[in-house]
Amino acid sequence: MKAVVLASGGLDSTVTAALAKREGHELYFLTVAYGQRHEIEVERARQIARALDVSKHIVLEMDLRAIGGSALTSDQPVPKDRTESTRERSIPSTYVPARNTLFLALALGYAETIDASLVYLGANVVDYSGYPDCRPEFLTAFEEVARLGTRAGVEGKGIAIRAPLLSLSKADIIQLGASLDVPFHLTHSCYDPLVSGLACGRCDSCLIRREGFRAAGISDPTEYAEGHTS
Question: How far is the C-alpha of 200 from the C-alpha of 71, rounded, in Å?
Fold first, then answer.
């Protein structure tokens, strides 16, 4: 079956794509360039699409900086050096308002045009518990939206929303990715990379990635700004 994968260029979406490929699906990547400060991830998504030999990769431009409301789409500082307990206390400023709702709607439209029955995304409720649009109840509700609001749904074909990493820890995701030969060296996680593209090593996403690789017992190929590689 054809499957649309929301491909950010990050670790989770890449492991998700590799898993969908192992399951025998024909992959169609959709990447959204939304004005994110870490725009390097868009180029990484292109590289990953080539590495996984996807059937087609579309990059859509949608400038969410006009709305703002997030450290990823404005000049707000990205939080740094936060502990795990601090990260779990509240929704972080890196939350982009309604991002997954918007991205899933675009993926749904793309799926209809190519007659795909599946949409995959790398949402993860354990590591990103502060993001309301990464919760299972949100994804279940959006699948109902897909059923009610598309021709495919009305005609009984349906488009399923798959988030296979939803309840896995970052270490579990990395170990799964290793078993799938995921090109970890192509993935990008940092929210606030240097102009050179180096990961800062201190934002929430960098810290979660580094902790995950350590827990998984696998070397992180990312080069961080302070010179650490694991």
Answer: 15
